[in-house]
Amino acid sequence: MATFFTDLISSIFTPGATPSIIIATNGSFAALQIVLLVLLILTYSVHFVVLSFLCAGLWWVINWFVTELETANRKGRDAKQSKEMEKEQERDERRVEDSGTETEGGGVQSEGGSSGSVLGSKTEGLLRPEDAQDVLRKRKNSGEASSGDLSTDSDWDKVSEAEEVDR
Description:
Shape: rod-shaped
Distance between the termini: 83 Å
Largest sheet: 2 strands, antiparallel
Radius of gyration: 35 Å
Number of helices: 6
Strand order of the largest sheet: 1-2
Helix content: 55-70%
Number of strands: 2
Structural class: mainly alpha
Strand content: under 5%
């Protein structure tokens, strides 16, 4: 019983509806209903019937609100857990995609294997098409472009020459 009161006092300073506050609230309303019933029997006054209905309504509304609050918190926790699980799955998928390197034939080769010339070492810093979707921008007309905005054929020639040297 002493632990209940210490939990009740400490739960005053914690946000939300704690079990000890809910128990204390329900106990208080039950005691109030008993007092109103005793007063009704002693005085035969209609006022105590009305007060008893008001007390019962308030008691029900408080318990309903606590139930709704717990349901909303549970949904929030579930949504947060599902988002975290989705993020972990995306990370796992990215790890699987990043674990292989592309070969010249377009296939994916594991890091330990060796076949043909591997372009993975040359293209590690480059964006893949899936990653580049956020970075793409609309091409400007030739009149709007500054000197570094558009690639030229000579840039592609340099890439081709680098590949031929590696072979």
